[in-house]
Amino acid sequence: MIEAKAAVADGKGSFTIETITVHPPKAGEVLVAIKASGVCHTDYDSLKWGSPFVLGHEGAGVVESIGEGVTHVAVGDRVLLNWAIPCKCCYQCQIGNQNICETYSPVTGVPDHGTAHLGATQWRGAGLKRSFHLGTMSTHTVVRKEAVIPITVDIPFSSACILGCGVMTGYGSVVNAAKLEPGSSAVVLGTGGVGLNVIQGARISGAGQIIAVDVNPQRLEMAVQFGATHTVLASRDDVGLLQAAETVKAMCAGRGADYSFECTGIPSLGAAPLAMVRNAGMAVQVSGIEQPIEIDMNLFEWDKVYLNPLYGKSKPEQDFPKLLNLYARGLLQLDEMITRQYPLERLQDALDDMLAGRNAKGVIVFDPK
After folding, report:
1. What CA–CA distance (Å, rounded) separates 183 from 205?
2. Is the confidence at residue 238, as pLDDT, over 80?
3. What span, in angstroms and rounded, lies between the C-alpha atoms of 87 and 102?
4. Pairing between strand 361-365 and 2-9?
5. How many domains does one find in the chain?
6. Distance CA 209, CA 56 (A)
7. DSSP structural state of residue 257
8. Inside any domain, residue 21
9. List of residues 6+ apart from 346 with CB closer than 8 A
10. What is the model's pLDDT at position 319?
11. Residues 78 and 110 occupy one common structural domain
């Protein structure tokens, strides 16, 4: 057994740094010493999930031990973790939708099937759940082997860890879901960590025009660094949104962009990409809004497509090697995205900086090596 230091959410809106117990892996499981964990808006949202659990779902580290049947990684390997864990056997996995696995996914699958064995992580004498079956804001975690992706290029852990959610979600929404065509125009509403990776996906895909829309001028400056060709500073009210939509249309020959991506996570903006895309264009709701949203059906005129993909329609064994290769070739900017690094004890500062829009991406670092 290992005594690990972890951020434990109480389920009611707060968290504390605690010492927890992590047990050895069983068959089909891997024990990972976490070196870095990304700070995502979902981590903040999850604080009120109702019961105690280990925070964090973006992680990278080193394999410390493996259970029986694990062959794709060995002790000492550098790895990143993927939360959309595919079983490869269910209906959705069989037809290519590994991101919405019916068995292991923490979002669409059978509850707890994707986690490691019951009691793998304990606190105060009881089993402790882990965020998205991972719990990366801990010095150690035990996960299913399907969640573990080998790192095959020279990359800092701080940069590798963010691949496991924000980068995959943003890039995949462009490449896997929208299948953006070279030379086309794209508008990105919201330029946080996910939005910046939508911009990167559009740039790498060869978009001719990438328009970033945000209410924060600092974030628009970041957007240009990652590939935006134009920016629109919007105000926070309905009038500001309408003006932004008209500005976008004017910038796209008066008809709207070929593709539009909503990356704000704000329910009232769920339909906003439809107002910014041309007839027969594609609007993509990237941020995973789960609350009810109101949509004026007139916004669908005419022949517009509205997508709500999960996790960029990721196929982990295919997509993560591609992302790592893009990084190694200098095409995918990850090091540049890490605005600040924090020790675990400063997690609240990291959350505050994220909510204030000061970071492209903040990362908790356990070991800088």
Report:
1. 9
2. no
3. 8
4. unpaired
5. 2
6. 34
7. E
8. yes
9. none
10. 97
11. yes
